[in-house]
Amino acid sequence: MALCLTCGVLLLGSGSSRLPPGEILAGLMGSSDNPVANRLVWRIRLPRVLTAALTGAALGLAGAVFQSLSRNPLGSPDVIGFTTGAASGAITAIILFTAGPVTIAIAAVASGVATAATVLILARGRRGGTTGGYRLILVGVGVGAVLSGLNTLLLTMGDLERAMSAQIWLAGSLEGRTFAHVATGAAGLAIFAPVVVLCIRRLSMMEMGDDMASQLGVPVGATRILLVVASVGLTSIATACTGPIAFVALAGPQLARRLTRAAGAPLLTGAMMGALLMILADLIGQNAPLRLVMPIGLTTGFLGGLYLLVVLGLSRR
């Protein structure tokens, strides 16, 4: 938490006009003698930092749930294809309706839930068996590839100006975030996070296996559906706020588990690690070499790719 706050303050001071810590604090209090600093802090940078933190927390929490349900470290929303599904709904709203943040969020959640339902149905065995493991991941990758092609088709056939806006959104960005995006992210966490919290005990039992959980009185099927819907909702809201963000949902829970070495799904620590990763990624993007300003989606993709290579290298030993 302290590291998140520290990085958040650093991010408030980063950008084309750098602000010292004292000026940042005065700007937050609204007591700065510099009206430009007040405007930078409250209208531009604070919404950006809060959106990054809320989005990262949502992705980290969703990733922890999916990895626990699938019992696979690769079982994150971006790998399974749920993020791409949410992006499909958002792109449709942008290109066809020139939608605002709320409409984009609704479209992303609806599309994300539909994608999740499709993946879960296709991943079930012939006799209605479990949807966990590599089968779920492989089906998700296939559905994600189809939806990625659909997104490209929408961008190709849409109005040029709207298609350009959607393409910029697809890169994953925190530019131009407002308190409307903050409210959207906060509302998503307020709605879906309590569902996950209420199912923590059931989720811990399900990690021992579906048969064991059923013997302990856990309604496995209903709990899985409830957790999937909540996690897809978190992922979709995050996608609506910033665009598709890669690897935060994958790396956040894994890093949290490695650091805490706690048993069970790292839900709270995974959410905090996701928020930290988003803020760090934006901080790195704002201070990239050669004065390049990198979109956060590009930064997380680059850092996440390096992380995945390191994990694969360590697993060979």
TrEMBL record:
<keyword id="KW-0813">Transport</keyword>
<feature type="transmembrane region" description="Helical">
    <location>
        <begin position="49"/>
        <end position="67"/>
    </location>
</feature>
<feature type="transmembrane region" description="Helical">
    <location>
        <begin position="104"/>
        <end position="123"/>
    </location>
</feature>
<feature type="transmembrane region" description="Helical">
    <location>
        <begin position="263"/>
        <end position="285"/>
    </location>
</feature>
<feature type="transmembrane region" description="Helical">
    <location>
        <begin position="292"/>
        <end position="314"/>
    </location>
</feature>
<feature type="transmembrane region" description="Helical">
    <location>
        <begin position="178"/>
        <end position="204"/>
    </location>
</feature>
<comment type="similarity">
    <text>Belongs to the binding-protein-dependent transport system permease family. FecCD subfamily.</text>
</comment>
<feature type="transmembrane region" description="Helical">
    <location>
        <begin position="135"/>
        <end position="158"/>
    </location>
</feature>
<dbReference type="InterPro" id="IPR000522">
    <property type="entry name" value="ABC_transptr_permease_BtuC"/>
</dbReference>
<dbReference type="GO" id="GO:0022857">
    <property type="term" value="F:transmembrane transporter activity"/>
</dbReference>
<protein>
    <submittedName>
        <fullName>Fe(3+)-siderophore ABC transporter permease</fullName>
    </submittedName>
</protein>
<feature type="transmembrane region" description="Helical">
    <location>
        <begin position="225"/>
        <end position="251"/>
    </location>
</feature>
<dbReference type="GO" id="GO:0005886">
    <property type="term" value="C:plasma membrane"/>
</dbReference>
<keyword id="KW-0812">Transmembrane</keyword>
<keyword id="KW-1003">Cell membrane</keyword>
<dbReference type="Pfam" id="PF01032">
    <property type="entry name" value="FecCD"/>
</dbReference>
<dbReference type="InterPro" id="IPR037294">
    <property type="entry name" value="ABC_BtuC-like"/>
</dbReference>
<keyword id="KW-0472">Membrane</keyword>
<feature type="transmembrane region" description="Helical">
    <location>
        <begin position="79"/>
        <end position="98"/>
    </location>
</feature>
<keyword id="KW-1133">Transmembrane helix</keyword>
<dbReference type="GO" id="GO:0033214">
    <property type="term" value="P:siderophore-iron import into cell"/>
</dbReference>
